[in-house]
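Hi support team,

I submitted a single chain yesterday and got back a structure, but I'm not sure I'm reading the token output correctly. Could someone confirm the output below corresponds to the sequence I sent? I've pasted both exactly as they appear in my results page.

Thanks,
R.
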Amino acid sequence: METGLKGRVAVVTGGARGIGRAICEALADSGVSIGVVDLLESEAQGTAEALVQRGVRAIALKADVSKAEDVKALFERVVDEFGTVDILVNNAGITRDTLLLRMKEEDWDAVLNVNLKSAFLCTKEALRTMTKKRYGRIVNISSVVAFTGNPGQVNYSASKAALVGLTKTIAKEYASRGITCNAIAPGFIQTQMTDALPEDVKKEMLRGIPLGRFGTPEDVARAVVFLVSDWASYITGQVIHVNGGMYM
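Hi R., thanks for writing in. Yes, this is the structure output for that exact sequence:
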């Protein structure tokens, strides 16, 4: 069975590096044209150029996805460039970690705006195109801490848990239009963000992973490709856990 992805068009937020770049590369290898969205303009451009080398069309789009005007403009640009939007991956995310009593209001607002509000704004714009063609695939990148909690990450955990509720509601609202919406909850994935953690912290986390290794961005990217492919056309409103067994 074919994946049905060749010739599709995707928007990937936070696509410049880490998990987002791996998602872009995996989609490109399946023949998907991609709008790489990120605040890191030069890195987004580098990713887009690498995707073109893989044989697909790709453009870099600098945008603050927590701002409605930026989101509206980026989707207009993608539709102008590619004619449509078939796939949306809400991957953009930041952390502002500290214990709750030390957390500033702006730390809470920044994380909720980038991690959650952006998914609301981007999904709303994507649906304008998807509902007309009665086809769409939406994937929200949540986190294992949405289910376990994590000290020092009350804002991040709350934003990622809220994405699950968002996912299930969108799935119910738009299933009749041929649109699926699912979430992926990664565990400990090796990225630039996690590389900065102290070694003793990483060793302690590794002890809690039954498969005995940290995940890679590619582990998450392969799950995204599955969920947006025809193989997953009867799956919606679900959370796929990609965590090596650290949460069951």
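A quick pointer for reading it: The first strand starts at residue 9 and ends at 13. Let us know if anything else looks off.

Best,
Support desk
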